[in-house]
Amino acid sequence: MIRVQSDRFDAGAELNAFTARCVGAGAITSFTGVVRDDTGALSGMEIEHYDGMTQKALAAIRDEAMKRWGLADALVIHRYGRLQASEVIMMVATASKHRKDAFEAAEFLMDFLKSRAPFWKKEFSRDGADWVAAKDTDEDALDRW
Amino acid sequence: MQVLYFAWVRERIGLPREEIETSAVTVADLVAELRARQDRYAAAFADTSALRVALDQEMMDFDAPLAGVREVAFFPPMTGG
Question: What is the CATH number for B18?
Answer without folding.
Answer: 3.10.20.30
